Amino acid sequence: MNALSGLKSAVVGPPLWLLAEVTYRCPLHCVFCYNPTDYARVEDELSTDEWLRVLREARALGAVQCGFSGGEPLLREDLELMVAEAHRLGFYTNLLTSGVGLTEERCAALKAAGLDHIQLSFQDSSREVNDFLSSTKTFALKQRVGEMLKAQGWPMVMNVVIHRLNIDHIDRIIAMAHELGAEYLELANSQYYSWALENRGHLMPSREQLQRAEAITDEWRQKLDGKMKLFFVSPDYHEARPKKCMNGWGNVFLTITPDGAALPCHTARMLPGLSFPTVRERDLKSIWYDSEGFNAYRGTGWMKEPCASCDQKEQDLGGCRCQAYMLAKDAAAADPVCAKSPQHGVVQAAVAAADAGRLPEQPLIFRGRAESLRLSGADAA
Length: 381
Ligand code: FES
What we know:
By secondary structure, the chain is an alpha/beta fold. It has 15 helices and nine strands.
């Protein structure tokens, strides 16, 4: 493929949304984590000064929203410095956290640094499942953190990744968010990347479970009458059309990995044959506009059949490049979620197994350093 072919039909605007993945380190071991399964090979995190430069370059490019995520971003002791700089530059700032490490002091410091928004993740409404899925004892701590966020005057934004092991608790999950005073609750069905892909057979709900969960969510929407906003993010495997991943490759979203690689999505680094420079090698402007990686799948010029002649191609842009690579072994193929994809059977088979309740023999794999090295083949070296 000609790496510049996508440009023929793309007008490249600035990135609007910067995601600073400041560390892959994390005290939790979630079975659906979207960090790359080989994250343990990444050790050389950007320094404080390097992150501050990233923030300045991204803002100069035009980015207006800045999310700090991980891993667990609170493990960076310089997080408050970064938030303060992002705030000074005029970003709308957001922290995506498990809450582990958030003390009263750090809450106050982050507030003083100008943090606009915190998204707190829970794994479930029950201590038992929350602590099992993250392989930690963090449920009670998260509840305390929820109270701290309210006390600091932040709107409480709660995120729960939904899957087969907690979807039948959705009524209780929504009730818990309401009791904790959340203004927003994101019920994000697991997407099957990274650790969640390894555990897909355990995590994928049946259609019946999904329909029930959506109906319960709708009942709550009516009951709450707008007092808490509920977002139910459907899993794409159960759709016939693919999602417009990241709102288009290299279109609005820019993520920086802990060691400084600039990517159009969380997982693009796994795609073979593409290079993604780090912010240590090039400035963000040249990476965003001129690098091979960002230009590879912009627009529609790179498409082959069935996408090239599809009347939906401008709407979904062929779906997700990472999913095409993971499921069809070709990043330029149609996303196999699409019913027109020749590989759509792979998705249908996974859904059929979930509907029939056929679970894999392989036990759940918890995110962790040893597993990461095993999955990346580094433990054999
Ligand atoms: Fe990489 Fe969709 S996650 S393009």
